[in-house]
Amino acid sequence: MLKKYCDPGIMRKAMGLLVIKTPYVVKTEKKGPVITYTVEGRTVETSSELPADTLQRYTVSWKNGRVVALNFLGPKKPAR
């Protein structure tokens, strides 16, 4: 499925999403034909790099039905 929606470089990044459960959109931005979603989700126990249940953030940008950018923002900082 990833091959259908994104290029190989983005596909490697997207594999990291497999350790995030129940992702949800927290922000949507539109710049011309590109729509960027900021997404949050919790890591699952299968990640060897991140503690389980850590709230992660990333952005994913779509253009013409394809993923054109994917950026991990890392763990969400606690509210002060």
Walk me through this protein's architecture.
The chain is mainly β and 80 residues long. 14% of the residues lie in helices and 51% in strands. The protein contains 2 helices and 4 strands. A 4-stranded antiparallel beta sheet has the order 1-2-3-4, with helices on one face. Strand 3 (55-63) and strand 4 form a beta hairpin.
Q: What does the secondary structure layout of this molecule look like, with pairings?
A:
Elements: H1 2-5, H2 8-14, E1 20-31, E2 34-43, E3 55-63, E4 66-75
Antiparallel strand pairs: 1-2, 2-3, 3-4
**Most strands sheet:** 4 strands, antiparallel
Structural class by SSE content: mainly beta
How large a portion of the residues is in β-strands, by DSSP E? Answer: over 45%
Helicity level: 10-25%
- What Rg, in angstroms, do the CA atoms define? 13 Å
pLDDT averaged residue by residue: 79
> Tell me, what's the shape?
globular
In short:
The chain is mostly beta strands and 80 residues long. The protein has helices spanning 2-5, 8-14; strands at residues 20-31, 34-43, 55-63, 66-75.
